[in-house]
Amino acid sequence: MKILVINCGSSSIKFKLFDMARDAQLASGLIERVGERHSRSVVNVNGHSHTSDEPIADYDQGVREILRSLTTIGDPPPLQSTDEVGGVGHRVVHGGETFCESAVVDAEVLAAIEKCCELAPLHNPANLAGLRAAAAALPGCPHVAVFDTAYFQTMPPAAYLYPVPHEWYVERRIRRYGFHGTSHRYVALRAAELLGKPTPNLITLHLGNGCSAACIRAGVAIDQSMGLTPLEGLMMGTRSGDIDPAIIFHLERSGVPLEEIRTTLEKRSGLLGLSGVSRDLRDVERAAEQGSVRARLALDVFAHRARKYIGAFLSELPQCDAIVLTGGIGENSVMMRRMILEGLTVLGVSLDPQRNDRRGPEPFCITRAQSRVSAWVIPTNEELLIARDTAELVQRGAGRGRRAETLAGTPHGA
Ligand code: ADP
């Protein structure tokens, strides 16, 4: 079965096509600047890259263009006909408390995703637009929604409730949800295979432009660093992560408009804000090596905050089988891995500098053989997991995935 995976952002569409019988990726690509005057489409088939600067007006045109490329580019192209697509998997950022696993999309599921738009106003509307465009282009094909939040619906109330008036949760759904769930789930499954332990205790760190940490006890996610939105938690490329909320009132009192504070915390903080150099860790590392004090500080704060979360999550586990690093930074930055893990010797992590001095597509262990807690680099593959969920639901013919038990609206803890 061939499965198309689609990930729609606010002005972009990423896609991958898989042949599930061979677990092989057949094609991938990206359309940027959808709806702008100069779009850019890149399609990769058989190791060859094809680019086009034709304007793409909207998601409908974008999806049609992707299907056209997949049936015409390459010799032979990855699809003879669009009828070969057995299912489409869609990344959806927010599933609220409604979805604890992936779901075949029907009118009810679409309505539930729409209801979650108020929780993720920047992401869910784009995901929905992509879903509708793909459903219009491939009407006979099952579409599956895979949620970033679903994996963390197993968090207990002690981890997901904020210590604020309980009505905020019951009436406004203000609670911690956690994001990057597909990535954390993928590396946790790979770690279970690598460790030969089906239900391991893990701390997983997804360190990319967005960064998050997850705590997994006996194979079940019990805590996560991101909250109501992906702004909470670790320091990121441009997002602040945890701050004292009183900073916002302090700035507002001194005349800074609320909207400016919001965009600063989302787009001009983190590595970019502290270093003044870039949101890209490679640039910050280079600047630090060349003597930039602010760049060095940005690296120190980044590592310090990651260590704090690892320490906190260790305290939630009976014992830790592995710390797993993934995402562009986790997979590639030898320096940042060292900065984070060298500070954890007291917790039983003994980094092996030679093992750490490595990159590559396969997972590898970066701690010494005698390390009480092992650490691993496991490259993530969110699209493959979305494709697997889609194929599984299509084969099962399932109407919908299991629904999460919801506490909102019940007198829980009242
Ligand atoms: P996204 O969250 O957008 O998917 P990625 O997972 O690709 O992002 O991660 C992007 C981050 O990974 C950037 O900060 C980038 O600097 C960092 N990164 C990628 N390659 C390297 C490298 N070789 N060394 C250090 N950092 C790297």
What this model shows, in words?
The strands form two sheets. The chain has an eight-stranded mixed β-sheet with strand order 5-4-3-2-1-6-8-7, sandwiched between helices. The chain has a six-stranded mixed β-sheet with strand order 11-10-9-12-14-13, with helices on both faces. A hairpin with a 4-residue loop joins strand 2 and strand 3 (24-32). It is α/β, with parallel strands linked by helices and 414 residues long. The model is unreliable at 399-414 (pLDDT under 50). The chain is 36% helix and 19% strand. The protein starts with a strand and ends in an 18-residue tail after the last helix. It has 15 helices and 14 strands. Bound molecules: adenosine-5'-diphosphate (ADP). Residues 208-210, 237, 280-282, 327-329, 332-333 line the site of adenosine-5'-diphosphate.
Number of strands: 14
Strand order of the largest sheet: 5-4-3-2-1-6-8-7
The stretches of 5 or more residues where confidence is low (pLDDT under 50) are 399-414
Sum up the overall morphology in one term.
Answer: globular
Radius of gyration (Å): 22 Å
Secondary-structure element pattern, one letter each: EEEEEHEEHHEHHHEEEHHHHHEHHHEEH
Distance between the termini: 49 Å
Bound molecules: adenosine-5'-diphosphate
Number of helices: 15
Mean pLDDT: 93
Strand content: 15-25%
